[in-house]
Design a protein that fits this description.
The complex is a heterodimer of chains A (198) and B (712).
Chain A: H1 2-18, E1 35-38, E2 43-45, E3 54-58, H2 64-71, H3 74-84, E4 88-94, H4 101-111, E5 117-121, H5 125-130, E6 134-135, E7 138-141, E8 147-151, H6 170-179, E9 194-195
Parallel strand pairs in A: 3-4, 4-5
Antiparallel strand pairs in A: 1-2, 1-5, 3-7, 6-9, 7-8
Chain B: H1 3-23, E1 30-31, E2 35-41, E3 52-60, E4 65-72, E5 79-83, E6 88-90, E7 99-103, E8 106-112, E9 114-123, E10 132-144, E11 148-160, H2 173-181, E12 185-186, E13 191-197, E14 201-208, E15 220-223, E16 236-239, E17 243-249, E18 261-267, E19 275-281, E20 283-284, H3 300-317, H4 324-337, H5 342-372, H6 386-404, H7 425-440, H8 446-483, H9 485-488, H10 496-548, H11 554-573, E21 594-595, H12 598-606, E22 611-616, H13 621-631, H14 634-642, E23 646-651, H15 657-665, E24 673-677, E25 687-689, H16 695-703
Parallel strand pairs in B: 12-19, 13-20, 21-23, 22-23
Antiparallel strand pairs in B: 1-2, 2-3, 3-9, 4-8, 5-10, 6-9, 7-8, 10-11, 13-14, 14-17, 15-18, 16-17, 18-19, 22-24, 24-25
Helix pairs in contact in B: 3-8, 4-10, 5-7, 5-8, 6-10, 6-11, 10-11, 14-16
The chains are: A alpha+beta (198), B alpha+beta (712).
Chain lengths: 198, 712
């Protein structure tokens, strides 16, 4: 019991000390493991998803850039296409000021979203681990657990839905390469969007 | 009013309206979400061939902002799409210099309040005179506070083309001229700008190239390209008369291929040259880590948590091996006062606490001062100085002798060279508090580690609050007893056993002397220890003299002996231990541990093996205990071997700037610190183990490592 208390307090101390630093993951290195609950309370561990390609999508339905992709059904189409191909698509919401789980479930339904799970990261720890800066901010992790893409969803950094047609979708390109076992051509781009509300 | 006046006012009004209508080269303001936007010009009409300025003016609601050319970590840059009649050409947006807008943990570059985004438009020389042209612009921008709202507005205005040179627009020429002053200018020839890439940090340097213009007093750098700097982390600033260097942190995640050119804007604070346009080919330099010298703002809740930890740390301090002997003396004082006046006891309690509190404050103040002076300093520096060690050892030796009963000084000699004896015991309690602090400082108890790191990192106020918390934690038992004397009744009544108890307490003190001698010896070698022991001998002689020596010259002889002892102490401290590479730091088998250096650690990590670093010091008792309890366990050693862990020892016994810097990077200021790098982890994912280790704790960390792959 004493050891538990000491350990907990120690971890707290360390956590407080390093919570002010944002981590970042270099491409090609193993994606940091995390354990988050989805909207129905089920736990999702990244390490248990080894063997599957995983997409992490940082989300906030209030953000005009997220609305751009969901409004035009762009994000949902991507989710549907690739989950059918066996990709696990995890949408993550970091920050304390999010809607309730019921509200988010309703929004997912309204948007006809196809993500595998919508995860809540209220203390922002996972967001900091991945240095997620914007919504949307996209990450692709291959079946071996390495980070192969991080950055923007496409190359048109505007909130205008008209720009989706004719844009290059980096996530689709990364997923196509990864699923074929080929290296990803563009592994890093600057993500655009609203800031993540830690 | 009568008809004549009415006519006059009407004419006045009409002509006013007419003139403003003719001269208005501005669009109608459009009120959007939190922005009022309009397009204005600085001229009342245009002349063919003469360029003029047009501004997209934003008036933003308080706390809402729009973005610069490089919006930073999030957001979106403002764009303008011009729809111009034939003969008009528009240039790119000219951006006045932005401000930094922190949105922790991110940072944006942009504008708040009011901004004019300028565009220069050139009417062709062959434009027909006497016409009125309509110019229109579609502006797209993002306006944010916590949420963001994308906005679009289309503005158009009409302007006449005349042959004569245009007059300034009465309303807008002045603010546009002001904004023109805020546009970045080209780099003056007296300055030189260069950038050096150190892989983990980036140096942005403005230097004096020629005379005639002094360097600014300060500098801000706004990059135009991404991934060169971590926007949210403040740079380290070094200012000299010849050069200003800003050292930024480079982001770990960046594109594989980056252009070698970096452009940006320098904001100087000089009235005649507020912003400078810069650009250079980035030179690659040796890899240098980024040392975060910025003082991060701590939230109130964080501060409270840290003060709480500091309080508990202070309580635990009472149990640390190097503080305990003093505490036992304290208790002794109690026992003698137990039969006495309750109020007096309370005052003594307060005096002791005051002594501890003020000493901690003095420590905090000196740490802050020295930290500001830029010295590489850390917690526990006192025991890195041989002279201080010798002084403490000698002092404790004398105290031990006193406790043992070899000599009496009326009341207990707690004061350090004080002249106050029986007269004011309060001051003695005060000085006991001071003494307790002096010995407590190098013992970093578990909670103190993070609290201290936090305090040192967060500046003067935090340091004082944390240190106060530590002091109060230390004093609480004594204060408690002095305020609730009823608890003292649980303490035994005075009697002959007191004398025995007092004599018994000399032995922990002597044990502390031996420990101090050992640390002293590591720094000054056997020679130094011999000198010190001789000093002790002389002191014993002086004590004997005081009781059994000749009645005449007694005082003089005693003083001579004391002088001799002092001389011996000083001489001993000046000895230098012979430091060899192969010196076994604090004994037992650390043969397979390598000496710490950043380069060696990086090399080791490149091999893909796990790396373990032990930041230790001879004077750190917790470190020594851990060595004997946790590291010497055969199971731990076997696991280190099995997982192929490369072991490094960073010895901080002597003042070492390199190791102090490493500790600062880990957000620590004292030892012990135990760092484990798992294979393939990023630099920032170093695991720090608890300060008090047992074999079980070490094993639980080692179990998470993969087994060493046998070379195939």
């Amino acid at each position: 019991m004493k050891k538990m208390v000491k350990k907990t307090v120690f971890v707290l101390a360390i956590g407080l000390g390093i919570s002010s630093f944002a981590f970042a993951v270099e491409n090609g290195t193993s994606a940091p493991d995390f354990n988050l609950k989805d909207l129905s309370g089920k736990e999702w561990k990244l390490s248990e998803l080894k063997g599957k390609t995983v997409v992490l999508e940082w989300n906030n339905y209030e953000c005009p850039f997220v609305k751009k992709h969901y409004g035009a059904h762009n994000m949902q189409a991507l989710q549907q296409k690739y989950t059918k191909k066996g990709v696990t698509w995890l949408t993550i919401n970091s920050g304390k000021k999010t809607d309730s789980a019921e509200e988010l479930l309703k929004q997912n339904k309204e948007q006809k979203a196809f993500m595998t799970a919508y995860l809540l990261d209220s203390d922002g720890k996972v967001g900091h681990m991945y240095d997620a800066k914007t919504t949307p901010h996209m990450y692709v992790i291959d079946a071996k657990g390495s980070l192969v893409y991080q950055g923007a969803i496409d190359d048109k950094a505007t909130p205008d839905a008209a720009d989706i047609k004719g844009s290059t979708n980096y996530v689709a390109a990364a997923l196509d390469s990864t699923l074929k076992g080929k290296p990803v051509k563009v592994a890093f781009t600057k993500a655009y969007g609203c800031s993540v509300k830690y | 009013m009568n008809n004549w006046n009415r006519l006059k006012s009407f004419t006045l009004l009409a002509s006013f309206l007419a003139s403003s209508f003719i001269q208005a080269a501005e669009s109608k303001p459009i009120r959007g979400h939190h922005t009022e936007s309009m397009v204005v010009t600085d001229v009342s009409w245009v002349q063919p061939g003469k360029p003029f300025w047009v501004a997209l003016r934003f008036e933003m609601d308080p706390h809402w902002h729009t973005y610069w050319l490089n919006p930073g970590d999030s957001g979106s840059v403002t764009t303008i799409k011009w729809h111009l009649p034939k003969g008009f050409e528009a240039g790119p947006i000219q951006w006045p210099y932005p401000v930094r807008m922190p949105v922790p943990p991110l940072l944006n570059y942009g504008y708040e309040g009011e901004v004019y985004l300028l565009t220069q438009i050139t009417p062709s020389a062959s434009l027909p005179v006497g016409t009125t042209q309509t110019l229109s612009a579609q502006a797209d921008w993002l306006i944010c506070k916590e949420t963001c709202i994308p906005e679009r507005a289309t503005h158009s205005f009409q302007i006449a083309v005349k042959s004569e040179a245009p007059a300034s627009d009465p309303t807008w020429a002045a603010p546009i001229k002001l904004t023109l002053g805020r546009l970045p200018k080209s780099l003056p020839k007296e300055y030189e700008f260069r950038v050096v890439d150190h892989s983990e940090s980036l140096e942005v340097i403005l230097s004096q190239k020629g005379p005639g213009r002094a360097l600014p007093k300060g500098l801000q750098f706004f990059p135009k390209q991404d991934s060169w700097i971590e926007n949210a982390v403040d740079p380290a600033v070094k200012v000299s008369s010849q050069q200003i260097t800003l050292t930024f942190k480079r982001p770990a995640a960046r594109p594989a291929q980056m252009s070698s050119k970096l452009d940006g804007v320098l904001v100087t604070g000089l009235a005649d040259l507020p912003a400078v346009e810069v650009g250079t080919q980035v030179v690659v330099g040796p890899k240098k880590a980024f040392v975060n010298t910025a003082v991060p703002k701590a939230s109130a809740s964080e501060m409270l948590k840290m003060i709480f930890f500091a309080l508990i740390g202070g309580l635990i301090l009472n149990l640390m091996p190097c503080v305990f002997p003093i505490i036992s003396i304290k208790i002794l004082g109690f026992v003698s006062q137990a039969g006495g006046d309750k109020k007096k006891i309370r005052h003594h309690g307060l005096a002791f606490s005051a002594g501890v509190l003020i000493s901690f404050w003095v420590l905090a103040a000196s740490l802050v001062v020295v930290r500001e002076a830029g010295m590489q300093l850390g917690w526990g520096f006192q025991l890195q100085s041989p002279l201080f060690l010798a002084f403490l050892a000698t002092l404790f030796f004398i105290l031990g002798m006193n406790l043992l009963g070899t000599f009496e000084i009326g009341t207990r000699l707690m004061g350090v060279g004080s002249g106050l004896k029986a007269q004011s015991e309060l001051s003695q309690s005060f000085l006991t508090g001071v003494l307790a602090t002096l010995v407590a400082t190098p013992c970093t108890a578990p909670f103190m580690g993070a609290a201290l790191g936090f305090a040192l990192l967060h500046g003067a106020l935090a340091s004082f609050l944390i240190f106060s918390g530590l002091a109060i934690g230390m004093c609480v038992p004594y204060l408690l007893l002095s305020f609730y004397p009823s608890l003292i009744s649980f303490l035994p009544r005075p009697g002959m056993w007191m004398e025995t108890f007092k004599q018994l307490l000399s032995f922990p003190l002597f044990l502390t002397v031996i420990w101090l001698l050992w640390v002293f010896g590591l720094q000054t070698g056997m020679d130094g220890v011999i000198y010190l022991l001789c000093a002790f001998l002389v002191i014993c002689f002086a004590v004997w003299l005081s009781r059994k020596g000749p009645k005449n010259f007694r005082t003089a002889l005693i003083w001579l002996s004391i002088l001799l002892a002092v001389a011996l102490v000083y001489q001993g401290s000046n000895q230098q231990a012979v430091l060899s590479e192969a010196r076994p730091t604090s004994g037992n088998d650390r043969a397979n541990w390598k000496k710490f250096s950043r380069a060696a650690v990086d090399e080791a990590r490149k091999t893909g093996a796990p790396v373990f670093i032990d930041f230790t010091a001879a004077w750190c008792v917790t470190c020594q205990v851990n060595k004997r309890v946790a590291f010497s366990s055969s199971e731990v050693k076997a696991q280190f071997e099995k997982k192929g862990v490369i072991l490094f020892e960073a010895d901080w016994t002597a003042r070492d700037a390199v190791i102090a810097e490493e500790l600062a990077k880990l957000n620590r200021s004292g030892v012990p610190v135990y760092v484990l790098y798992t294979p393939g982890a990023a630099d920032s994912a170093a695991q720090l183990l608890p300060e008090i280790l047992t074999p079980d704790i070490l094993l639980s960390y080692l179990k998470t490592l993969p087994d060493r792959e046998k070379a195939s």
